[in-house]
Amino acid sequence: MFGKLVLALVAGVTAGALLARGADERGRLAITSGGDSRPGAASPEDVLARIGAPSSPASGMLLLPGMECLVDEATGIRAKVLVTERGVRCQDGVPAGGLAGAPLKHFLPYYVFDVWPREGEPEFYEVGSTPRRQSVKGWVPAVSVARWDTRVGVRYARRPDGRAPPLRIYASPDPLVEILQTGRSATRPIARATLSGERTLMPWPVAETKLVTVDGKVHELVRIDFLAELPERPAGGDDAALVLDDPAGPPETGAYTEAEMTHLLSDLKVLDIVFCVDNTRSTGPYLDAIRSAVSTIARRLDSLPTRPDLQVGLVLYRDYVDGIYFDQGRGPSVTWTSGMTSDLDGFLARVRGLTEAPYNSDEYAEAGYDGLLAAVEDTSWRGKALASRVVVLIGDNSFHEPESEKNPKHIGLERVRLSADAHDVRVFTLDIDGGGGEAEQQVHLEQFQAIADACGGACFPIDDAGDVVDRIRSISDVQVERVHANVAVTEGLRAGKAVGTIAEEENLDIRQVTEVMEFLEGADVDLSRLKPGEPTFSTGWALVSLDGVDLLEREVYLAKAESEALVGALMTIGSRYFVSNDGADRFGRNLVEIGAARRIGDPLADFFETDSAGPFDVFALSKGIPVNPHSVLRMTKSEIMFMSEADKAAIRDRVNRVCIPSLVNAQNDDGLWVFRDDFEFGWIPESYLP
Questions:
Q1: Range 64-69 contact pairs with CB under 8 angstroms and sequence separation of 24 or more
Q2: What gap in Å lies between CA 392 and CA 295, rounded to an integer?
Q3: Are 478 and 384 in contact (CB under 8 A)?
Q4: Is the pTM of this model over 0.90?
Q5: Distance of alpha carbon 154 from its chain centroid, rounded?
Q6: Is residue 489 within a helix (H) or strand (E), and if so which, with residue range?
Q7: Rounded to whole angstroms, how far apart are CA atoms 232 and 244?
Q8: Are 620 and 632 in contact (CB under 8 A)?
Q9: Are 544 and 511 in contact (CB under 8 A)?
């Protein structure tokens, strides 16, 4: 995300040429190829041979539960693509297929699950928003994405005084080598970066790395993918920036009138939220937490600085069981609706008075699909497509599926999805861990995750009722950001501000701004009448440092679950593989401990059970455990066995004093993590890795 980093394309290279060059440099698909260009790095074949891995793509699948996307066999890094065009939609089949789902998010990573064709240049990628197959969106054309086979990104480095050195980006690495050799290059850069504001949410993804040696010193060059704003050409000057003009020109419709803008902005501030709550008897123990959660969300949304036009509503659902039906004057019903209101105090008073059903249901599953469909279809939504419409589903047990006798209307996920799409409603789900045992709760969680995935929201599982408020607060955070961004970007575009200016002034980033532009286009707002700038995907080469001064800082893209697994692996490394003892005894004891480790799922135990001559860091990467390029774990099994006490102490010290505390602190920093479906992803400094 690049709101504070405005990259201006300079004369000599058009965005179209950049896109073409980026596609050429990506080369053929290499799911099983490595991207390690370090001195002495092994080839993919060497690495596979060392770790004893078979050559099929499935051999690189990670050990984390539910991770089902393709990975690089040599490094264990998941295969990903970045969406390079706005408004790209997936197909439901290849090579020909209908359009499926909403447009993909511009310049956001998507995970690769399959390619077509299987041989030669890929023409389509099957992509999903998380490493879990249930997040698959469909097939995206290869020409609309860029491969991203690393997990590394870079940020513009700052000095302690807050200043930043100049950063120039070139179409090829050759001019950078000239600069390293002579201090200058006659080649014109394709982009320059300037820095203002604070930390952005996402660095530039590193697509490729090269190491070059000049005068005996090794320098790192990186090819980064970025969004560049194309400002208008100033009068004169060789470094004037290009603007991409449509030869036909914008349609002669004129700008929006003040009355039209007033109506448009009014609709953007409309925020309707309906709480759809399980009201069966089993929810009794969680009622206090549910009341607090509903109040937290409603109060927070009402206090937004953009002052949204907020209305709230409540839908309760029970089950098809005599004695617990609702009756609102229309006969017995499994659902109860309050209608929408702007009287927040009155609404919350009604919520505080909630009581559970007087009798138990016949079984754990409830008529949840009835409640969810009522929340979507029986609500008087306002504001048409520009409004924010949200349903928050809260429940402690599963739903009757369409084939059940307790689902006489045969309502299922597909019907709910179609209805939510038709009404422009996003559904968030909060999974309370209720009764019924492990099997029931697994069905419950899978249903809630599937509903959130299908309806553009997120699922928030919890371990106990005390977590409800903290978990559900994230839902309000999402809406806070969306309402603010929609209004701020629209007002900025209307005022004639450039995209980079809007991003900087509103504490957004260029990708967020382009997402709002996609949203406006989807709601039939004519962007040409708002006169927006056009952020464009580009790719180019930059130096990581120059003359001993860092130009870029490296970070890694991880799922929060990955970072948690990494902490567990590091604890294993420190306590099991580098304990203080003589080499032979330590290794002998290790073999005993490995038997126990395998039973509890230690992914590193195989290293000591095989005859692999490969280094420990490469083995860790093959198991999906990210490590630093200058890893302290770069050693063979033999080197570990006969390591000195001082060296073992140094590794334990780095792992226990630097890596583990840094990762744990990062996990507790909510500002680092962003939800995509039911996964949290974030960027953390590469220095946190072992």
A1: 64/131, 64/559, 64/561, 64/562, 64/565, 64/624, 66/131, 66/132, 67/131, 67/132, 67/624, 68/113, 68/131, 68/132, 68/133, 69/111, 69/112, 69/113, 69/128, 69/131, 69/133
A2: 13
A3: no
A4: no
A5: 17
A6: helix 468-494
A7: 9
A8: no
A9: no
Residue 464: what pLDDT?
42
Orientation angle between helical segments 468-494 and 287-302, nearest 10 degrees: 20
Question: Where do we find the tokens 């390079």?
Answer: 84
Residue 229, pLDDT above cutoff 80: no
Amino acid at 606: D
Distance CA(513)–CA(686), nearest Å, equals 28
User: Which residue is it, tokens 């697509």?
Assistant: 207
Q: Encoding tokens for residue 77?
A: 């890094």
Cβ atoms within 10 A of the Cβ of 15, count? 18
Show the tokens assigned to 100.
Answer: 């499926």
Separation CA 52–CA 44 (nearest Å) = 12
Range in 204-213, 419-428, 573-582 the model is least confident about: 573-582
Q: Which residue has the tokens 């930390």?
A: 199
Residue type, 152: V
Whole-angstrom Cα distance, residue 398 to residue 659? Answer: 40
Backbone angles phi, psi at 608, to 5 degrees: -90, -5
